[in-house]
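On to our target:
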Amino acid sequence: MDRFSAAERALRTAAPHELLDAVRHVLMEHYQATSVELLMADYAMTILQPVAALPYTAEPVSVHNSAPGRAFGAQEPYLRTSSHPPAVTAHLPVTVRGDRLGVLCVTLPEETGTPDVVRELQDVSEVLGHEIVVAERDTDLYLQARRADRLTLAAEMQWQLLPGRSCSRTEYDLGAQLEPAYAIYGDNFDWSTSADHLTLTVSNGMGEGIEAALLTNLAINALRNARRAGLSLADQACLADQAIYGQHHGAVHLSVLLLRFNLSTGQVEVVDAGSPKVWRIRDGVVEPIELEAQLPLGMFEETIYTPQHLQVLPGDRLLFVSDGVYNVASPQGERYIQNALARAATNTRLLPPSQVPRAILQELTGHRGPSQSEDDAMVVCLDWHGREH
């Protein structure tokens, strides 16, 4: 058995909470590693925290100005050398289908840190990422390592509902973020992909705290139930609308934007049921996409929803934002939607979609100023590449 196969087997046979111990043991035995550390990205995507000494973990490192942070941001191995003793530390992104989980840091004797070995270690970190995703069904270890602070109960419910925070395929790249990360309650996003379609849901729940989280949970699961039953996009909206109205009888509602992308043609079917909005960046021009707004889900009994159609082109970037982004006013009273959002979209045009939401939300904080309270805020970024025929 070669050493990569030994590492892969060790990870696949390890107990869910022992993945780090398993990868550390096999890397020390087969690759002469002297140190192996796993860092997990926190919910705010600003720090990387060691999977150690949980639930409090060890001292975190910054995503923005550290060697592991460089590997995490660039999504490429980053090497650092030291001379006493001569050694090389490989910082390797741990990522699953574009969803950035963290960084694996492996220190090797200088003579063994060859490019071929680094490529093998990157493959090991990819296997580790897949095993972490599977292990999270059975252990809290890796979720605890992501926490720089305690989550509110509403935030716990919302984060558990998400499919991930980024996703990549040949046809597209997706990235998304919610803020305040540790106290989010109503905003949410969801996506699902198949051989020929991408379905994307961006929602903005009414209310605060647990009530908002419960409402969003009901809506997202109703939409998933309808989607998995093979219903059309309009019927998915109708079923979720009936579920919310049946539970709350019009007392609360949920705004949602439903989109279904044809991966072959770039044709997009859209149901706009409320306040989330979409901007398009095409050939450097930032502009809002005006849709026919229909009633939010759950407002009235048996609402009928009618889909609209758009066309996306290779090179297009779409930004989806909640009202906690575009409605935010500066201390001078200027709403973010007026000028600042277009500036933020332009300023982040060279960043990959996985990094765009975080960057825009940081600019939003500066626009808001220190005196205003922080509402739910959500940004989803989609880069469309299309499919070669």
